[in-house]
Amino acid sequence: MAADPIHQFQITKLFTIGHIGGQEIAFTNSSAYMFLSVAVISVLMLGAGRQLVPGRFQSMAEISYEFVANTIRSTAGSEGMKFFPLVFSLFMFIAVSNLIGIIPYTFTVSSHLIVTVALALLVFFIVLFYGLYKNGLKFFKLFVPSGVPIYILPLVVFIEVISFFLKPVSHSVRLFANMLAGHIALKVFASFVGMLGALGVLGWAGAILPLGLTIALTALELLVAFLQAYVFTILTCIYLNDAIHPGH
Fold first, then answer.
1. What is the C-alpha to C-alpha distance for residues 172 and 114, in angstroms, rounded to an integer?
2. What is the Cα–Cα distance from 63 to 229, expressed in whole angstroms?
3. In sequence order, what are the residues at sequence separation of 6 or more whose Cβ sits closer than 8 angstroms to the Cβ of residue 211?
4. In the chain, which end has fewer C-beta atoms inside a 10 angstrom radius, N or C?
5. Of the candidates 48, 86, 50, 47, the residue with the CA atom closest to the CA atom of residue 68
6. pLDDT the model gives residue 120
7. Residue 1 pLDDT
8. Where does residue 31 rank: exposed (0-12), middle (13-18), buried (19+ CB within 10 A)?
9. What is the dihedral of CA 184, 185, 188, 189, to 10 degrees?
């Protein structure tokens, strides 16, 4: 029988924390892997040290720091560095949780839309509130591109407003869909290996192709894990740049 590729995304209750308003508050496997991701990041950053000749942990921490810092400077300018803690936390959390999710029999936090929507809405409201706080009514220049003829300006403004409020949708769905689809494909090909391997010698020969595809997909998922964390991060920086420097 083929393995269920959807089973890996099921949220299961580990224990009950309490009840609020008749609703159960439970600690789930998703919560556990979020805590695990934070723990791994904490060990990496706190255990890095400050040696003159960096070791492995310190090198990884410094590379992560410089990568995110350069991303912010190249998209939002030096003023965007005030948001470094936010952007760095998002990048590390998404990257580490994605990498943990590639390990067999683990759980991928970002494969659930509720998680990616929460992260995207966090960025959206920070951009909205900071943009209004810093620029006041000038923030609305973001919706009025310069050089647009007056007779089509209302249509352009309408499109800009709609696209602004749809940013959290594209921001969250991109990460969720990529992780969900990749893990389903990986589980399907891995199940083929087990099914064919159970048929004997001829099955073993037939399992070579799906085994090779499984290995290739695993390598691809490693790349996607980093790539999706980077895409989410750079889009965050672009949106923050809109709040810092509204207008076109």
1. 9
2. 15
3. 193
4. N
5. 86
6. 95
7. 45
8. middle
9. -150
CA dist 167 and 242 (Å) reads 12
3 state SS for 86-119: HHHHHHHHHHHHHHHHHCCCCCCHHHCHHHHHHH
Q: Identify which of 116, 111, 160, 139 has the alpha carbon closest to the alpha carbon of residue 11.
A: 111
Helices (H), the chain: 29-46, 56-76, 84-102, 113-135, 153-165, 167-197, 201-206, 208-244
What is the DSSP code string of 169-208?
HHHHHHHHHHHHHHHHHHHHHHHHHHHHHTT-HHHHHHTH
Confidence (pLDDT) at 62 = 87
pLDDT digit string (tens) for 104-135?
Answer: 888 999 999 999 999 999 999 999 999 999 88
For 133-170, the pLDDT digits (tens) are 988 888 888 888 777 888 888 898 899 899 999 999 99
Q: Distance (Å, rounded) from C-alpha 125 to C-alpha 166?
A: 13
Note whether 168 and 207 are within 8 A (CB).
no
**pLDDT value of position 203:** 62
Rounded-to-integer distance, Cα 225 and Cα 10, Å: 20
Tokens of 107: 């759980």
Q: At 129, which amino acid appears? A: F
Instruction: Give the pLDDT of residue 206.
Output: 65
Distance in angstroms between the alpha carbons of the first and the last residue of the chain: 57
Q: Kind and range of the H or E element at 16?
A: strand 13-20
**Spans in the chain with pLDDT lower than 70:** 1-4, 48-49, 52-53, 196-207, 247-248
